[in-house]
Amino acid sequence: MLSIDLTYVGSGIHEELIAHVADQEGYFEDEGVHVALRDGAVWPGERVRAGATIGLGRALLSRLTDGIPWTVLTANTHRPLFWFVGRGDVKSMDDLRGRRLAVHAAHTAPGCFARIVLRKHGLDPDRDVQCVERIPADYQMDLRRLREGSIDAAYVGSTLAPEQVATEEGFSVLSWVGDHLRIPTVGIAVDTSRIPLDDPALQALVRANKRALQTIAEQPRLAVKHIASLLNRLTIEEAQHHYERYVRPWFTADGRVDPHAVQEGVAAVATELGLSAAAADQMYRPAM
Length: 288
Prior knowledge:
The protein has two domains: 2-79 and 182-287, 3-Layer(aba) Sandwich (D-Maltodextrin-Binding Protein, domain 2), CATH 3.40.190.10; 83-179, Periplasmic binding protein-like II (D-Maltodextrin-Binding Protein, domain 2, 3-Layer(aba) Sandwich). The chain has eleven helices and ten strands. The chain has helices spanning 13-24, 27-30, 45-48, 56-66, 109-120, 140-148, 162-169, 200-218, 220-230, 236-247, 259-273; strands at 2-8, 33-39, 52-55, 70-77, 83-86, 100-103, 130-133, 153-156, 172-176, 186-191. The strands form two sheets. A five-stranded mixed beta sheet has the order 2-1-3-10-4. Helix 1 (13-24) crosses helix 8 (200-218) and helix 8 crosses helix 9 (220-230).
């Protein structure tokens, strides 16, 4: 049997859903490939490069900053699953001015996305908001700090469903990144200096990934079941709402990259980083 490592670089359905479906539904086995899912959230880039990666955002940043030849073979979604959540009287993005926001570091992909969205709301992340940096996690500590009032807002990912948490805790969902930024953020990418594009295990992985994408597009009940198993605080009805709001309309059915989303998103990221977008020109060609 073929084998390949597949690294996700942030927990939650954003990174994990499609690989989870492919694994649980036996698509990897059908393709004759053993896929070792690895949590590389705190791994150095050199270790992530040894296998395929789900995290297209991190791959883009390392291609722009370090010239690593990451190449995208399939994209799961162009809408980053990150949200701004506030406590108390922080009920809109305007209310973040002068407040304490728990957020990923500026040099990370989620942190870069957060800064882009803050600017779109007229907020300078270096002057108008007190950014409290923390590493990616399951965001439970953010919820605890929101409850106790040591932070006023948090930038959270898809290990939780923001509307359900806001209802339970009395918080407010301020903004969804996917409403303001389109960019391929998760899928399958490899460093072509380590794994050639015609590698049989890689090609088997891509086929299974695309089959899982088709499954969640065409079999809503099955998709909701898998979402509920990953977000196990949700009822089936809440998982259904989450699927209809954030997954069904925005996850691709065939893994193809939207060239317009690439153009807009990469330009926004490069501008935020103060770099040229030219280094990413060839990154998405195989998935277009």
